[in-house]
Automatic annotation (TrEMBL):
SMART domains: PKS_KR (SM00822)
Species of provenance: Caldimonas aquatica
Protein name: 3-oxoacyl-[acyl-carrier-protein] reductase
GO molecular function, one term: 3-oxoacyl-[acyl-carrier-protein] reductase (NADPH) activity
Similarity remark: Belongs to the short-chain dehydrogenases/reductases (SDR) family.
Membrane-spanning ranges: none
Superkingdom classification of source: Bacteria
Known partners and oligomeric status: Homotetramer.
Record's keyword terms, sorted: Fatty acid biosynthesis, Fatty acid metabolism, Lipid biosynthesis, Lipid metabolism, NADP, Oxidoreductase
Top EC group: oxidoreductase
Length: 246
């Protein structure tokens, strides 16, 4: 119960890594606030957690829409008085080689993966600073560390998120707020659904554990970083890839 009574807002929580993180946090005693743009999946996720006796609430929230983000954060603050943990997990891909990438593909990925993280963090940060503690966790990627074919937009956002993390760790560390990023390798979720099986096979081959990761394996790392066990961990971009990049 490392997260007992912690109020945790998780974006993109209706599926994949976000949902696994919501389950993990709930198992560890957190009050989980799920936010996502997919209302039906969100409702399913909330119902599943509630059925297990978890304290979970769901909000339709598009991280690109600052007014929506502010409104959800205000509701959470009114109801619970604080946000202890923010997991900036929502993310998308719109892949194309540089020569083929449209401006719309570029802008959409920047809006969700980069500007969305800025919106959500700015919306919660004053309350964290006021209470003198808080944890912000950002979803980066090995792609942000090393680049990836066909992912000009995505790689830029995931590298940008590391820039956010290191900057905010400096700005907020002295105020009791820790900020860290997680850089997963390739994890079996819907985000990989557009990748051909042949390429997935290559990804497995490139990983020294010869398999994709499971969403739960990232969720457990978020739970550790969110907990007091990581009380002196600040400003890191932690690669969790089964040794993919060795
Ligand atoms: P996923 O597609 O399974 O889930 C992403 C969730 O984000 C979805 O529920 C989606 O509805 C939500 N979302 C999308 N746009 C949103 C918006 N504007 N506002 C709010 N929610 C929105 O993906 P995933 O694999 O679980 O990825 C989660 C995060 O982890 C992403 O940031 C992704 O870039 C990152 N990541 C994933 C992998 C991987 O291999 N799966 C690897 C590295 C990093």
């Amino acid at each position: 119960m490392r997260l007992k009574d912690k109020v945790a807002l998780i974006t993109g929580a209706a599926n994949g890594i976000g949902l696994a993180t919501a389950r993990q946090f709930a198992n560890e005693g957190a009050i989980v606030v799920l936010a996502d743009v997919q209302p039906e999946a969100l409702e399913r996720a909330q119902a599943e957690l509630a059925a297990r006796g978890a304290r979970a609430e769901a909000h339709r929230m598009d991280v690109t829409d600052r007014a929506q983000v502010d409104a959800v954060v205000q509701r959470v603050l009114q109801r619970h008085g604080r946000v202890d943990v923010l997991v900036n997990n929502a993310g998308i891909t719109r892949d194309a080689r540089l020569q083929k990438m449209t401006e719309a593909q570029f802008d959409l990925v920047i809006d969700v993966n980069l500007k969305g993280v800025f919106h959500c963090t700015q919306a919660v940060v004053d309350s964290m600073v006021e209470q003198g503690r808080g944890v912000i966790l950002n979803a980066s990627s090995v792609v942000g560390l090393y680049g990836n074919f066909g992912q000009t937009n995505y790689a830029a956002t995931k590298a940008g998120v590391i820039g956010f993390t290191k900057t905010w760790a400096r700005e907020l560390g002295p105020k009791g707020v820790r900020v860290n990023a997680v850089c997963p390798g390739f994890i079996a979720t819907d985000i990989l659904s557009t990748i051909p099986e042949k390429v997935l096979e290559q990804m497995r081959g490139n990983c020294w554990m010869r398999r994709l990761g499971a969403p739960e394996e990232i969720a457990k790392v978020y739970a550790f970083l969110a907990s007091d066990e990581a009380s002196y961990v600040n400003g890191v971009a932690l690669e969790v890839s089964g040794g993919m990049t060795l």
